[in-house]
Fold this sequence. Notes:
This protein is mainly β. It has two domains: 6-92, Sandwich (Immunoglobulin-like), CATH 2.60.40.3080; 96-244, Immunoglobulin-like (Sandwich), CATH 2.60.40. Helices cover 3% and strands 46% of the residues. It is built from one helix and 17 strands. It has one helix spanning 116-122, and strands spanning 6-7, 10-11, 16-22, 25-30, 38-42, 48-53, 60-64, 72-80, 83-92, 96-103, 124-130, 136-145, 174-176, 180-185, 205-215, 223-231, 239-244.
Amino acid sequence: MASNGSENGTDENDVFESVTVEETDLIVELDDEHTLDKLSVIQPNGELFADTTLSAGVRRETFALNTDYSPGEYEVLGGSDGEEQASTSITIEPDVQLVDLRLGRNYPDEMYEDAGDRRTRTETILTLENDGTGPDAAVRLVFAGDIPGPTSDDFEESGIYDTESDLGGYADAVVLPPGETVTIYSYSQPFTSATGNVSCSPETEYGEFETTVETTVQDESPTGAYEVAYTGDDLVECDIEIEEVQ
């Protein structure tokens, strides 16, 4: 997956050519003529996040943020012979939004490869956008409200399909890099017909439901609210339409 990266560092001098976030890494690039022998990264609480010794001629260093860092302003310090010579700062924080949710049954061509009829009819397709400057990861998908299969409190899996595994199953986490749009798929059958939680009738039954994507970094989980209509003789042959509540 390609990354647009993000950059918002402010430099006190010309030592730092750029400070960016790419995928889940903090990338520091230095000027050709720099004389630094050490780089340190300070996290928002003022404690050391990471440091490294620079060999002569090294112009690029990578620090792994992963998806369990603390969001906020990070300071990058450059030192030489034990003295601080330069500093720059960058704000690293995700801004993940749930921008679209579709039913697999209504968009079968947009389901993952080899989804099969049962999964296509019962699962959902979700589009997430990270407009922030830092990475995040989706770790759990929760459905609540007037749908056939809301997520139970004792459901311990992520409820997200693992598109990276040849075996399928539940994903532990789906990385959401800054500046990217990512598609995920439910894997908990929220629209299964094997339930009595909602009804479907020729006169149309109406309801509302909410979908929440739990993430590892962002404080407020991305959430979407939807109106839903069920039309048909039963849930097996039901026509289900949803519309986002604005």
